[in-house]
Description:
The strands form 4 sheets. This protein has a 10-stranded mixed β-sheet with strand order 2-1-3-14-13-4-5-12-10-11, sandwiched between helices. It has 13 helices and 16 strands. The chain is 43% helix and 19% strand. It starts with 9 loop residues before the first strand and ends with a helix. Helix 12 (348-366) packs across helix 13 (389-400). Magnesium ion (MG) binds next to helix 9.
Amino acid sequence: MPKIQMKTPLVEIDGDEMTRVLWSMIKDALITPFVELKTEYYDLGLPHRNATQDAVTLDAAAAIKKYGVSVKCATITPNAQRMREFPELTKMWRSPNVTIRAALDGIVFRAPIVIACIQPAVRSWRAPIIIARHAYGDIYSAAELYADEPGEAKLVFTGDSGKTRETPMPRVDSPSVWLGMHNKDSSIRGFARACFGYAASEKLDLWFSAKDTIASTYDGRFRDIFEEEYETGFRDTFEKLGITYFYTLIDDAAARVMRSPGGFVWALQNYEGDIFSDMISSAFGTLALMTSVLVSPDGCFAYEAAHGTVTKHFYKYLAGEETSTNPTATIFAWAGALKKRGELDGLDELAAFGEKLGAACVSVISGGVMTRDLAPLTDGSVPVQTVNTREFLDAVQAKLT
Ligand code: NAP
Ligand code: MG
């Protein structure tokens, strides 16, 4: 069979531990036999990040901006324990994901892979619910205060012009806690654009919810900016695609989500996104079936698995034990990236291959062949055959040939 040709290179970002092992296994079994792979390779494995003083992470981010599509392996974020584990580290390098997200000013969309024999905890959910979490401001960069006597507070803003604006807060007659948070028009607008762009690219409805009846200035600003962006930049596209934009109050949205069949993007502010992304992913099944894509307001797409480097499995692997690590989310990262690259380059065959790759994984698992982590989650509708990673990849490969 002739291999599928590529036009623009894909930015390939390698990583650490068990997922680094999976990375080359996936490429060898599922990508290079079918695609004449053209990538710009960046090694973000911790040793190479350290050797380059983390310059490689910035280079990778610049490459994503240049080419527009990347696929990333999970990477170690060093912490105190990792500093002991790797004494050669010259610095506690910051999370590559944080660096890349900051460079792209991007938003992370997390989508569960839905498989018939793995029932979500919510029975009505048939299609994925994709959470888009705003990643700037609110309580994550707030100022807090505890006051141990009666008194009053006010919120004061001093402009660079010297002009001040202030607003009083309630008077209290006992010890009290206070919180001041902010967000920026530019960040909210970037968030809105990334959400509309992603929903259009996936042909899914977009929901946005906040509490603008209570926080009429703060959440009201979010609502207005979403509305503006929709009207000026996306209404036509949405109508052509037959998808809708829907704003509702956060509590109403929470109630509706639980009764919905799924199949939409749910955009949320930072704190609500933090909570609901964990709730939705655990209700859909497992982190090993959760995909993730970072989308920038100017249309760059960085695909990865939502899980980490699966350290425990890596140490078993190093000890020569057989591992049954689930490569599905990482395969989906490749599938998503190849599909997007194909779409952007007008290469139908490449886009179709990306689609087929994801479908092949789903088909193998639906048929009962799965890694050890998934077996306990199945509903008994198919006989389950637990396999190791190699056997799973072989089964997916067989679907592609
Ligand atoms: P993790 O790698 O996601 O793994 C946590 C546990 O979840 C595993 O021990 C395993 O459970 C299960 N699991 C996750 N993915 C799996 C898969 N594909 N197949 C089977 N089981 C899977 O999280 P972690 O152990 O907390 O973090 C390890 C490293 O990853 C850390 O250094 C962290 O900084 C990094 N990390 C990176 C990213 C990223 O690059 N995007 C994201 C998160 C974490 P059992 O052991 O019970 O089988
Ligand atoms: Mg969280």
